[in-house]
Amino acid sequence: MSEIFLDTETTGLSFREGHKIVEIACIETKDLIATGNIFHKLINPQRDMPLEAFKVHGFSKEFLNDKEIFSDVAEDFLNFIKGKKIIIHNAPFDLSFLNGELDLIKKNRVDEKLVIDSLEIARNKFPGSSNSLDALCKKFNIDISKRTKHNALLDCELLREVYINLLDVKEPKFNLSSTNDGEKNFLAEKTYNKKVLKIPQDEMKAHEAFLKKELKKNYY
Fold it and tell me: Could you tell me the pTM of the whole model?
């Protein structure tokens, strides 16, 4: 089964208080190796942008005014994630916004049975310490120098690296053959903290079996 690393940016902390999604990013992987398939949308929230949120991600109301609204991208988003494991850091936050938006337009919700919360994994592995994405990147010596603002697409890639370290598996390499030029530049410019190795086919099969066993043991 393929995996999706997912992140959102929003106008605030609570959908119930009227805040909305302004960015959705998903990176697809197969056995944690990037396939080159990316879903990335900036979204017009059709409301003002609080200063606190603007300081976090840098998206102004004026910048987002000409972007698509959530209902325009919802079907493509659901098709992209359909039937795949979804890894999110602090999943309840993102799911509250995604499912809230989907409820408004009477679309199927994200299947929470397919969601893995990497924050819960980190809390179990490092109890009592900070397990924010930034803190975990520092713990695993992952370069966050480009993270001057929160950016959902960059955060998905950082989360992929963090997740690999949380599972104590080898760092896979990207397959950039199916990406467009802009996506290639984003992925190819990344500097990894581990040596990238070509993984033999028998090791890949064993790795796939290991992941299935671990995910079933820990999350079902």
Answer: 0.77
CATH number of the CATH domain containing 100: 3.30.420.10
Structural domain including 159 reads: 2-219
Which residues 6+ apart lie within 8 Å of 82 measured at CB?
Answer: none
Residue where the block lists tokens 């990335």: 40
CB atoms within 10 A of CB 108: 11
Catalytic residue set: 150
Helical H segments across the chain, by residue range: 51-57, 61-64, 70-81, 91-104, 118-125, 133-139, 152-166, 181-188, 201-219
The rounded distance, in Å, linking the Cα atoms of 76 and 114 is 18
**Total domains in the fold of the chain:** 1
Q: What are 62-100's pLDDT values in tens digits?
A: 999 999 999 999 999 999 999 999 999 999 999 999 999
- CA distances (Å), origin 34, targets 28, 86, 137, 173, 196: 6, 14, 19, 7, 13
The count of other CB atoms within 10 Å of the CB of residue 21 is 22
